[in-house]
Specification:
This protein is α+β, with helices and mostly antiparallel strands. Helix content is 19%, strand content 42%. The chain has a single domain, classed as outer membrane lipoprotein receptor (LolB), chain A. It is globular and about 55 Å long. The N and C termini lie far apart (43 Å).
Length: 231
């Protein structure tokens, strides 16, 4: 499994070309990405155990992202877009639709840039270390380390696609969190209605609107709680 490979991969430094050239190649590859879809796995680790979650995600440069997190009752769906969020948990018979006024200052083009955020991390850091390459799932993968005050960040990059496919947060002796993309598809054809939730039959939609001129986030939460109590 990919997560196991991250944890067990050797961190010995190998001679593997210019770090700057590789980061430039990643930035160039990312500039050509208008959308991507992938499965993902995220794991949190402690001394006693590890927990793992699986799901799927799709991101569009238009400022939209759809995430489906696996659960025992079906996918938990969250969609974020132009000043709006859709949310549906199959354990609750309701779909929540949150919208915000144009006065809410938010750059939605930055939403969900998981891969782009990792490239930004590498391109903006002053102390990136090239850890050489490993084989993950039969694919040559570059590794880079960014030291932090509380630990290190290891970024794994698909050497063929020139795009990050995993990240690991580590202390000196063990991983704390692992996140990986699998079955990554770049610039797929995404249906127009993909970034909305098709409401199941008999599931009401709770519409909530946020205007920073008239209410606060806490007041918005109170509105949602009142709607739940009424149901």
């Amino acid at each position: 499994m990919l997560v196991t490979a991250w944890i067990t991969a050797s961190l010995s430094i190998a001679s593997a070309g210019s770090t700057a050239n590789r980061i430039n190649a990643m930035e160039d590859a990312w500039s050509k990405v208008d959308a991507y879809c992938s499965r993902f796995v995220v794991s949190f680790h402690s001394d006693a155990q590890s927990t793992m979650s699986l799901g799927k995600t799709c991101w569009s440069k238009a400022g939209q992202i759809r995430t489906e997190l696996q659960s025992s009752q079906g996918p938990i769906i969250e969609i974020r877009g132009e000043r709006e969020v859709w949310y549906h948990n199959p354990a609750r018979p309701v779909v929540v639709h949150l919208s915000a006024s144009s006065d809410f200052d938010l750059d939605t083009k930055q939403i969900g840039r998981g891969i782009g955020e990792l490239i930004d991390l590498l391109s903006k850091a002053n102390n990136v270390r090239d850890l050489g390459s490993v084989e993950l799932g039969g694919q040559k993968t570059w590794r880079f380390e960014v030291p932090r005050k509380t630990g290190n960040v290891i970024v794994f990059v698909d050497a063929k696609k020139r795009l990050p496919v995993a990240v690991e947060l580590r202390t000196e002796d063990r991983p704390l969190m692992s996140y990986g993309f699998t079955d990554l598809m770049v610039n797929p054809q995404i249906p127009k209605d993909f970034f909305t939730i098709k409401t199941p039959e008999n599931y009401p939609v709770v519409d909530l609107h946020f205007d920073p001129k008239t209410n606060t986030p806490s007041e918005l939460l109170q509105q949602l709680q009142k709607r739940k109590e009424k149901r």
